[in-house]
Amino acid sequence: MTKFIFDLDGTVTKRETLPLISKHFGIQEAIDNLTKETIQGNIPFVESFIRRVYILGKLPINEVAQLLEDVELYKDVTKFISQNFENCVIATGNLECWIKKLAAKIGCCCYCSDGLTENNKVVKLTRILRKENLVKRYKSEGEKVVFIGDGNNDVEAMRAADISIASGLTHMPANSVLSIADYLVFSEEALCRQLNQLL
Predict the structure, then answer these.
(1) In Å, how far from its chain's centre is CA 4?
(2) β-pairing, 109-118 with 88-95?
(3) For residues 157 and 182, what is the distance between their CA atoms, to the nearest angstrom?
(4) What span, in angstroms and rounded, lies between the C-alpha atoms of 151 and 6?
(5) Distance in angstroms (rounded) separating the CA atoms of residues 64 and 75
């Protein structure tokens, strides 16, 4: 059996969600600076994520969840997922409390990071999803794993997967992703064609 694991931001959604949240609430500069430093390799991803969650955690959870519920999705990609929902999962570093409604719209199992919440705010990050552990778990259960992603935080999962697809639907995939991907796609049509061939 083949298990398809999708990154969420920029792979299934048409926009990256953290910049969207920061722009909506007017704290874009702080998040953009952290993101830039992370991309350049000056700050490790995990440390950067913790710092970003610390900034964004002060925002009302219900408002963030509502904002993300309305994020536009790639229709053909979500159609493939809904038609094969038992073989598809989402893997995102995003917090469960923020993306619960969005994940429900996609309609397959979703693995994410977790935080301790109080008074409609995130007070502490309790678990950061390691996507590669998810890949290894499915492989240990005898599944053939296809991972679809675009960012630095997808690299280890893509390296562990049987087949990896670099998604250039929203932006150019990270160089680290390009260096290990088996396939590179730039359109929904190409991605879905590839996914159907691997079914």
Answers:
(1) 13
(2) parallel
(3) 13
(4) 12
(5) 22
C-alpha to C-alpha distance for 11 and 53, rounded to whole angstroms: 21
Amino acid (1-letter code) at residue 161: A
* CA 174 centroid distance within chain: 14
The structure tokens listed for 174 are 């990270």
The predicted-structure confidence for 7-61, as pLDDT tens digits, reads as follows: 999 999 999 898 899 899 999 888 888 877 776 668 887 888 888 888 999 999 9
**Fold of the CATH domain 2-17+66-198:** Rossmann fold (3.40.50)
Q: Enter the tokens of residue 66.
A: 């509502």
**61-83 pLDDT, tens digit each:** 999 999 999 999 999 999 999 99
Residues in the chain: 199
For residue 27, give both structure tokens.
């704290």
How many CB atoms sit inside 10 A of residue 10's CB?
A: 20
**How do the domains of the chain map onto residue ranges?**
2-17+66-198
Q: Full-prediction pTM beyond 0.85?
A: yes
- Map 101-141 to HEC letters: HHHHHHCCEEEEEEEEEECCEEEEEEECCCHHHHHHHHHHC
Residue with tokens 């409609």: 120
Measured CA to CA, the distance from residue 59 to residue 167 in angstroms comes to 30
Residue 164: helix, strand or coil by DSSP? strand
Beta-carbon count within 10 A of 46 CB: 14
